[in-house]
Amino acid sequence: xxxxxxxxxxxxxxxxxxxxxxxxxxxxxxxxxxxxxxxxxxxxxxxxxxxxxxxxxxxxxxxxxxxxxxxxxxxxxxxxxxxxxxxxxxxxxxxxxxxxxxxxxxxxxxxxxxxxxxxxxxxxxxxxxxxxxxxxxxxxxxxxxxxxxxxxxxxxxxxxxxxxxxxxxxxxxxxxxxxxxxxxxxxxxxxxxxxxxxxxxxxxxxxxxxxxxxxxxxxxxxxxxxxxxxxxxxxxxxxxxxxxxxxx
Amino acid sequence: xxxxxxxxxxxxxxxxxxxxxxxxxxxxxxxxxxxxxxxxxxxxxxxxxxxxxxxxxxxxxxxxxxxxxxxxxxxxxxxxxxxxxxxxxxxxxxxxxxxxxxxxxxxxxxxxxxxxxxxxxxxxxxxxxxxxxxxxxxxxxxxxxxxxxxxxxxxxxxxxxxxxxxxxxxxxxxxxxxxxxxxxxxxxxxxxxxxxxxxxxxxxxxxxxxxxxxxxxxxxxxxxxxxxxxxxxxxxxxxxxxxxxxxxxxxxxxxxxxxxxxxxxxxxxxxxxxxxxxxxxxxxxxxxxxxxxxxxxxxxxxxxxxxxxxxxxxxxxxxxxxxxxxxxxxxxxxxxxxxxxxxxxxxxxxxxxxxxxxxxxxxxxxxxxxxxxxxxxxxxxxxxxxxxxxxxxxxxxxxxxxxxxxxxxxxxxxxxxxxxxxxxxxxxxxxxxxxxxxxxxxxxxxxxxxxxxxxxxxxxxxxxxxxxxxxxxxxxxxxxxxxxxxxxxxxxxxxxxxxxxxxxxxxxxxxxxxxxxxxxxxxxxxxxxxxxxxxxxxxxxxxxxxxxxxxxxxxxxxxxxxxxxxxxxxxxxxxxxxxxxxxxxxxxxxxxxxxxxxxxxxxxxxxxxxxxxxxxxxxxxxxxxxxxxxxxxxxxxxxxxxxxxxxxxxxxxxxxxxxxxxxxxxxxxxxxxxxxxxxxxxxxxxxxxxxxxxxxxxxxxxxxxxxxxxxxxxxxxxxxxxxxxxxxxxxxxxxxxxxxxxxxxxxxxxxxxxxxxxxxxxxxxxxxxxxxxxxxxxxxxxxxxxxxxxxxxxxxxxxxxxxxxxxxxxxxxxxxxxxxxxxxxxxxxxxxxxxxxxxxxxxxxxxxxx
Lengths: 248, 850
Prior knowledge:
Chain A is α/β, with parallel strands linked by helices and 248 residues long.
């Protein structure tokens, strides 16, 4: 990984869904560089293409055209196997609905990325991580025995356990109450601060975006604004005026 | 990853249990069969081992062909010659025959279908070879005495000194004084058989074996090896005899029963196999549904870095563990089933000697392997589906599995499979040139292929079929019924594969029912068209032969105008083993046959060397009237016959033998001849007075039974029905497996539609309506299985009826209606548990369910 350069870079991404008359252009030429050790928020209203962008950046979906590079490797032409190895080494995920395996304990869920990769657990790192997310006393619980906020903290710990190059968080607060949301956001920010973790967060919640060092606004499949951090109020204002920023 | 899979599996106990049930049944059948047949085998082995414990060598008669049942007796002088051999320490000879005791009710005593045996004993001789041990009284020593086994003495409530009635070879009753009671080895009976013991001279006279023996047991002098003893004995043996060591004789006797037992074993294993086959459909379907439902889980694993291969193996591993788990349960359920099957046999009148249940290593291995492999194979397709879950499904609501690259070839492949299966079936059904075994193999593989093929085609036709079959539901069930129909239609692949499991069971049951109907019709038809007598004389049970003396008694008493019996035995001609019948001349007026050459009168004019042959035999050996035939009996006697007539046997039951000779000639050729039946014409036909007169004459023949033609037909039908019931029970197992399949699908479907059900309840659907909706969906699925299965069954029956010849095609419409009702019942039963779950969903939770 090039410490100075971008961790994730996208060049001229387009993504079209469907064919003919019903075709939808979700992305219309997006280029973006994600800087290391930073929390980047991708903002935009519903249908702006922000989720599609994240899916493509994370290798979950393929662009119609354009390329994505993660840690120096071009992922857009990778086959399933190569992508699997890429995920093991470089990518962590946090989902809106947590996506924990219900039969596994919190500890087992957190260690899952290492289990599937057949790697040993760095116990010191695991202990530090679980203490950091405040789950040290909840490790033997099953997801069903945890609150939404606690489940999402398990998911955050899980995304970090393998020390990935970049963590993608998809609406991480979308299913949480205000208090839990605040805790998760603080946690994500801490991770960049404490460990220099690169995080890309997709959200439509101005409060979530407010913790980001950089905010990328998307509208109708295009980046309309790329700003350094802003307050919740500023973000709200920007969102309301997003139409005026759109290229004509 | 392995740990993750296992934890996941254990975490979903209900799913594991429901899936397992589909395999448990089949494995239980397999293990139960092995345990049962092994146990019976061990029982027989124990019996014969006791008989030959002290015998270094055993001499028996040797049939020229056929089994030991046809072995001839040999001259008693053989014993004297053996006793003089230098290596012989002691030798004893005996005779045996069928002999039965008569109970206080005037009927023969039989314990659950076990035979009545007659043995001989030398009261003054060496008893070391005698497996019977006296427990009271003494051995019979005069022509007026008999001894019996302790079990029979108990059931007859007789004691030493009492008078008891005995019949030999189904003849008339004679009374003897009970001289003693004996145990067989350490047991009070020999697997339920009754044993009548006479002194040797009396036995030889009674069994019609004067100056003859059936068996000689020999003990060697110390230091004489078995091989040396055998070679010495060999040198003095008359023709048609053989000598074996005690162990060999034990094994030979066991094998004798073993051949029947292995038929039973293969038949039962076949039904276990069918249940496993049906189970594999259920497993494949259940795993497919769960794979679809766990798409997000698999996708999440993929985003965590799991490769598609890991996901595939996770599903296969799940299949493996489920299979192993289910097989282990099935193995032990089989132990219980063995007990149950034994009871079933007992109820069917077959008493088997039972030692402790035999649980062989082979049983464990085969059962576990069968269940595990079937489950594993069934999990392969769902595993491939799981592989196709894309990682992005982790973030998409209601992700749909992408169709396989080969999916578009699906219908084509299904049709090809069907076509291949039908081709195999047709080869099996219509190519007469092939051996019957090969034809059945082709047909069997064809049937399996057809089931697979139809199951593959079914998804394409399930939607329109469900629309039609669901119509009554929309009428009966209102909104719930309409929703049920839509639900059954919305995932046709799932509905179709659920129904396919039931289809197999119903197809087989239908095929059996149609064949049985044909068999019944042909039995009734042939008896009605051929038998011209008023009464039929048979043994009490109808399938063992009866004595000639009972027919003679009727003739002598003058109560009938004609009494004509038919004997049956095995013979060999042109190197082929054939059925030989001996005909009383009177049959010419009582048995109406179709003739190619000759007339009915030919039966009365057979003379000493005349033979009636059937058209098939005539054709395969190019025989015409006047052709010579050399016939050989199992005892090694031969006779030169001349073809005097050729008859066309009816499609079904052949009333004569392949070769039929006069009863007089038959009696001179075969030892101890008996009638399989005798036809009787009475003055004025069937009447109460005639029946009473006949029965009065036969009162001294406890094993003889008089039936009118009508009663005879009924009892023949009953025989078919008995077999039919047994087959229904055995196939019922497969139906139960498919019932669990429907339960599985519905439980998983209810789980999948939690949110939808919550919505329906929220907008006012009552619990009753919810239950009704699930119930109707189950019934539509079951009816779909019936719609596919019953026609296949009818078709298969038509085909197999053709292969088996002689079974006319006749559809039992009433029974088919019953099967449709049974399918509905299966649906209703299967719906009980899922419907309860659906109706008890908490509305709020269901709506929030994510």
